[in-house]
Each structure stands twice: as structure tokens, then as C-alpha cells.
Amino acid sequence: MAASCSLPGTQDLSTLRAKLQGLLRFLREALSICNAHTVDFYTESVWEQLIDVPPETVLAVLKKATEEAEARPAEARPPPEAEGTSGEGRWEGRTGRQRAGPAQRSVLCSGPGAEAGITDFPKIFCETSQKLLSVEAFALAAKYYSLQNLGVCTPFEQLLVALRGNQTQKTGENVKPDEFMNLKKSHEVQAMSELISSVADYYGIKQVIDLGSGKGYLSSFLSLKYGLKVYGIDSSNTNTHGAQERNRKLKKHWKICHTQSKSNVNGLALKMAKGKKMQGEIQYKANTEEECNNSPTSQEMMSTSEFLPDFSVSVISNIRKQMENLHVCSHREENLCFANAFSLIDLLPINAIEPTTSSRMPKRKMSEANKERRKTTSKSTESNIYSPLTSFITADSELHDIIKDLEDCLMVGLHTCGDLAPNTLRIFTSKSEIKGVCSVGCCYHLLSEEFEDPHKESTPEKWGFPMCHYLKEERWCCGRNARMSACLALERVAVGRGLPTESLFYRAVLQDIIKDCYGITKCDRHVGKIYSKSSSFLDYVRKSLKKLGLDESKLPEKLIMDYYEKYKPRMNELEAFNMLKVVLAPCIETLILLDRLCYLKEQEDIAWSALVKLFDPVKSPRCYAVIALKRQQ
Length: 633
Hints:
Blueprint: H1 13-34, H2 46-50, H3 55-71, E1 90-92, E2 97-99, E3 106-107, E4 121-122, H4 135-144, H5 147-150, H6 156-164, H7 183-203, E5 207-211, H8 217-226, E6 229-234, H9 237-292, H10 304-307, H11 313-325, H12 368-380, E7 386-390, H13 399-402, E8 409-417, H14 420-430, E9 434-442, H15 469-473, H16 480-485, H17 490-494, H18 501-518, H19 537-547, H20 557-567, H21 571-601, E10 606-613, E11 624-630
Parallel strand pairs: 5-6, 5-8, 6-7, 8-9
Antiparallel strand pairs: 1-2, 3-4, 9-11, 10-11
Helix pairs in contact: 1-21, 3-21, 6-7, 7-8, 9-11, 18-20, 18-21
């Protein structure tokens, strides 16, 4: 166990609160952009109310900023407080002071706990109208307050090195997850399972609880590759049954892999044996001839390697090395016994895989020693299993009622939805058996917010947001639309995976039609994925009205198309506005994740906590894990 190794240093609670203060100062002005709903973009004249620059300017500035960021390698990019900006303003050094141009004026971001680095920003919004004035400054501020630039994250590789100490990296069984899951899920599962396995080794723990386990991708991988005993808990009975079925198919997968691997190993053994035999025969012949004829001519005969190029010394040596790498051991019987090769199959119970004809020993009974080995292996690996369970988890869930053999364990969650992510952290802090937590949340729009309804009296309910004392004291509220914006993927947009502008445009124009022609301003029903099933805007409107239960026959084709022609020239407004929301999205996510990290820093029995970027954000946009470890007794 590498418990004696020190973990990477992290920022303390006071430093994190100071960063939160700076972020809130920016978001108090910028949040109105995120809280404007795209559906109401034309009906509520969102652009006119919130933006005081042309859409062409917004798109040009953001495009230029993205291209410049992508053109520079990450290691060559200076921190945001040292970067220059285009236009009349320019940042100077690490003080963050901006040299104001004729059309810009600085606003000092001051307040208790402000630090160097939480800096002056040019005037982004108008003080009277609250409209956006400077796109360049907006983009710079949004970048500054993203997790990637605030310096609050612990590097993934650095954490792995600290957890492993002087131990060699644990590779586990030769499992290829991309053979039974898509590339995105494979990327997530491999990275997260490597971290979880390292934490488990650090504490000497064998039990893992996977909350919101879904189809069991992470759970089964942790069990099969790393030999951990995993309980996967999901609220959906359908997911639990699906995970069981998927686990059954995995057993077939491992059986095939095992059979193929064993065949390959036997082939190597046979090739090596033949090579040795032929080499021995030739050596014997050479020795005999040498005894019979000691003339110089006989000494110039061709070497063994020239007689047998396929079984030269180097080839046989290579085969021998491969056999050694596979832990081949000799057996008293004529066969070779590969006791440790591909032992993944031994992680399963003795009756998990039905024997096939190819795996049976024809005309020979399995030796008593081999039977005993299989029984012993089965007993020793009973703990290395994955058990899918169905249960709805809350912050007050009693784990002993769900898991009868609960012991010291880790609690993990890969893309736990809504309140399950904060509840995972609450369960971790309240249960002594849980020694560590690794949580990657998602679906921020489904979080419950304590201060979302200002007229509602506060209850003792455990809300999804906020969690930390500072944001509770501030009575901070993001709002559902802002939390929805936090789910947008800036990195994907930056590499060319743009927003579905046309479908958003169709929906916004439809809303204006519904308001004008049916007198409906708010509708509880959703249109859904009608756009992908529609051949044109006209077809989209007809199908949407029908789904909403509205009489579409009362609208003539010309009237519908008049709305389309009216707003088509303004489609770039919608595109520009959504790009502003995308740029701001990382700031909302930063707020939510810093809230969770501060909550953990406030707990007394937690020895170490941090945010770690686990995944490539292009492959998996929700890429940050909240990790915490308790003090060891």
C-alpha cells in the first residue's frame, strides 16, 4: 500500500472562496444571458434586451478568439492574466491591469478576499441598461473564470504517480473495453477505473460502490480488469436487468478471448518444442561429424542458423521470452499447464462459463490437482464480482440495508445525474465505511436549487445546489436555464462540432407563431425531436402543432412561411447569442464544481480533496471528477 506517499497539494478553503467571490462578481452581470431561453428568443426580443453590439461582431470576435486559442499549443499558452487581448485594451503582466482604450474603461473587481489574479476587467456590461458592450472582454472574463484557467485542478497523472508511490503500475487483465462499448464510454471507463484502482490500492480496499451504475460499464470493468468487488446501484430496474444481461454477454466475450489466447500460447509452446528438438538433432549431427572429421574444411560448414532460419537462436529466444511473459510453467503430464496466463477467466465463479468441446480434455479426466485448483480459485475470487442492485439513492439512504456485507469501500459515480452527484458526496461524508469518493456529475439542469423560488420558505431538504456555506450565505441561485447552459460543450464547438442553429431557429419561430395565432405564451408540453423527422419548416410547424394538441389546419401555408421569411434574416442573432451562452457555459460549471469542492473542504475528517480533469472534453464534455479521501485511522 502506498499510503505513506504524500498526495499533491491543493488550494485551501479560503483561496477557493476568494475565487468564488470573483466568479460571482462576473456572473451577477453575465447570468442574464444564460438564463434567457432560446425558445423565447424572438417572442421576448432577447437580443434587443441584452446585447448592444451587432451579431456579426459577436460571431467574428468569438471565431477569432477560438482560432487563436486552437492555433497555439496548450503548453505555449500563457495564463489568462498575462495574455493580451485584441482591440484597444491590453493586459499587462501578472497584475492583470488593463490599459484602457478610448472606448473602454476599467471596473475594479474588489472585495473581501480578492487576490492578485482576480483582476480588473474592462467594462463588459452597461451600468444602466445591463446590455453587453464588449464581446472581447466578455470572452476574456469567461475564459479566466473557467476551471482550466483558475488553477484549482490537480493534474490526473500527478495524482496517479502520488497514489502509486514506488509501486509499478497495476495493469490488471488484458481487457479491451472498446470491444464491448463505444469509444466515448471506453475512454471514460478506462481513465476512471485506472484512478479508482489506484485509490483502492492506496487504501488497501477491495470493495467499490458505483452509484447510478446504469448499464454497468464501469462496474463490470472494475471487477473484471482490477479484481474489485463492485456493487452497482441504479434506480432503474430496467438498467439493473440490462446490466445483468450485459454481464452475461461479457462472460461469453472473456471465454472466447481465453480460448483464443490459450490456443495462441499452445501454438507458441509447440513451436518452441519443435524448435528445440530440431536444434538438438542438428547439434548432435554436428558433434558427430566433428568427431569423425577434424579437417579445416569441415570446420567451415554452415551454422545451425543457416540450416534452419525459421528456428534460429534469436527466434527461439524470442519465443522463450514470450512464454516467460505468459508465465508458462511445466507440468508433470505431457501437456503444458499455463496456470497464470489470462487468469481473467478465474475472476468468475466456477460455473460462470459452460465448458465447450475445445476446452475439455478428451478421453482423460481432469486431474484431481487441477480440480482442486479450480475450486480454490473460485473461492478466492468470489470477492471479485459485480453485483447490480436496484435502489433509489438519496442523501439519507442507509447503505447497510442495501449492501449486507458493507465494509471499508470507495464510492464512485460516472456521470451521475442531477442531485445524485451532490448526494454521493453527502453519503461519503456521513458514512465511516466509505474511505474515498470519485464523482463525475452531469445533467446540471436537473439539480434542485434551494434559492430558485424566492417566495418559498427554506426547508431542511438536502438540495443539489448550493452545498457550501459561502454560497448558502449568499443565497446564490443559478436558475434552470443557466444550469442547462452549463451542459453545453465549448470544446466540441471549438473543434467544429457546431450548435444545431437551424433546429433552434425553427423552434424559436414556432413559439412566435403559437403566441400570435393561439394566444399561448407558456406551454408545459415539449415539441421533442420533430426537427429530425421534418422535411421543411412548413412540415416542422405542422407536426409540432399536432403534437402540442393545437389545430394546425387553421394556419394557411402562406402565413406559416411569412413567419419564416420574417425571421430568416435574423437567424444570425440566434446563432451569435447561443455562441455567447456556449462561451459562458464553463463558468457555470466552474461555479457548481467549486461549490462541491468547498463543501468537501469544510468537512473535518477529509484528508484530501480536489478537482481532477479525467477525460478529453471533446470526447466527454463532462470531464471533471470531484475526488476526496478520508483520514486513515
